[in-house]
Design brief:
This protein is mainly alpha-helical. The chain contains four helices and three strands. Helix content is 67%, strand content 12%.
């Protein structure tokens, strides 16, 4: 039974990371255009986020299909051209809404955590 509890917790953590990844990518692109490997290297520095090419590129493609990102190819001085991603106007609006909802949601959860800690 203890093993099942650990597996359930690991599944919950995986879903939490997956949900946060889209938000983190869009936050990074708010700063300006970035290419895929650059995003991976930046996200790997965030504790708890596990990012691979197999997760980031499908996510970037989905966000592009939804109209939140656009791409452009840029010649590189060190190798082949790089595909850069940036937020569209629609993506910026989406990110603003995500930030607003995240702040409300995380504040409410933090309040709940603090109220339970005091009990």
């Amino acid at each position: 039974m203890a093993n099942r509890g650990r597996v359930d917790l690991e599944n919950w953590i995986a879903q939490l990371r997956k949900g946060a990844l889209e938000f983190a990518v869009m936050l990074l692109l708010q700063e300006g255009r970035k290419y895929g490997l650059e995003l991976i290297q930046t996200l790997e520095k965030i504790p708890g986020l596990i990012v691979t090419e197999g997760t980031i590129y499908p996510l970037l493609n989905r966000l592009k299909e939804e109209g939140w990102l656009a791409t452009e190819w840029v010649e590189s001085q060190a190798g082949p051209p790089r595909k850069y991603y940036h937020l569209t106007a629609q993506g910026r609006q989406r990110l603003e809404a995500m930030i607003h909802h995240w702040q409300e949601f995380s504040s409410s959860l933090n309040d709940l955590i603090e109220s339970k800690v005091r009990v």
